[in-house]
Amino acid sequence: MAEYILKFYPAFSHKTLEEETVFKKLFPGEEYEYQKIKNLISDLLNLAYNYLRTKPVYFTEFIPEINLTVNLRSLRALDLHEKALVAAEKKLESQKTRDGIYLYNKFLLADQRQILNTIKKPNANEGFDETFNAQFELSLLNLLKQYTLMKHVSIENDKKFSMKMYDEVLEYIKKHSDFENITLRQYRLIALLLEEKKEIYYRELKKIYTEDYDSLDEEDSYMALFYLNSFCAERYNNLAEKKYIYELGDLFKHAFSKDAVALGTFHYPDFIHYAKIFIKAGEFVTADEFIKRYSGRVAAEQKENVFNHINALREYSLGNYEKALYSISKVNFPSFILKLQVKLVHLQLLTETKNYEEARAAVHSFTQFLARNAVISRSYRSVINRFLKLCIMLIGVYETENKKEKKQKADEFFAQAEKLSSNLFGIKLWLLERKI
């Protein structure tokens, strides 16, 4: 049965895979028996399960080495035990990745080394430091991983967690930074970045992400990028610090070079986000390479929307406003947050192309859109409504012909734009960069 059905891997969608057809292939000339084929399917599934039970995964690959040392010690084959232990220690240290699994295996080997020393020299007290340090770094890493995840969720969703010993651990890692393990140093910086939001922690974490990337496992490197991205987005959206678009460009370029732009499924909003950052950072060649490599992973039903949106952003960045306006007018995403961004770009382009009456109509339509949608948060709604009023002010400045009056209106416009509380989707910077 396995030999037959594996011919149709990976889709397994061929009509000859129907149960009765498979039965005829396996038992030619016999009358179809429902229970017989069901039993075969069940047996095959159990064989697959048994295979997966024994197949090593990344955190069990080293277990045979541990088992060998423990069993040799249990048999009191101490000379062989020590040789196996030395070999296992060398094998572990030859691994590039220095993650939590590495620390776990290091602790198990240190524990075996300590037991061996105790058997050979009962009063020597050798190996205790090594065992404790390995256990300590492993425990601290596990705590920091969980703390940072809970801290992030509590910030994003305004949810409270019982984070036992958090304050004590935080105080400890503020005073101590000389950890041997690179992954532990990473999560120390993530914890401090979440708590204090200081540039120095961002810089140090970015250095680990870019320079020590090969020492991190896939999940940990992705989490480093996740928190670096969050820091940059907050600085750009809340403080209107434009340099963080270029920081994001650097980070995403590195992730792209490592083929690590996603952890698992790559959704089309993520595809747009990467392409948008590359374009805004002026990395047009990288944007093209990125689109070429990953365009096949964009959901078919959204491809037209996605590529019209990206094309609009590209033409906008190049100053081709009419072309950009044409592309953005053809975009209609089902996602509310993407609809919001498209409406913002559309309004900006109407202003850039001096279609002022259409821009006013777009402001009116946008205001109604915000009022109708309860999904949008109060803070988002407030900022965007304020932006829409500033757009009307800006159009008024453009349409004023008297120079003195125009300057007065322009001064008032920029003063009000400066007071905008957020640079959400780059709207504050866009207003402040208008040439009047």
Topology:
Elements: H1 2-5, H2 19-26, H3 34-54, H4 63-74, H5 78-93, H6 100-120, H7 128-157, H8 166-175, H9 182-196, H10 199-211, H11 218-239, H12 243-257, H13 268-280, H14 284-294, H15 303-317, H16 321-328, H17 336-352, H18 356-372, H19 378-399, H20 403-418, H21 427-432
Describe it.
The chain is mostly helical and 436 residues long. Among the domains are: 2-54, no CATH class; 264-332, no CATH class; 335-436, no CATH class. 72% of the residues lie in helices and 0% in strands. The protein is built from 21 helices and no strands. Helix 9 runs parallel beside helix 11 and helix 12 packs across helix 13. It is flat and about 100 Å long. The model has no long low-confidence stretch (mean pLDDT 94).
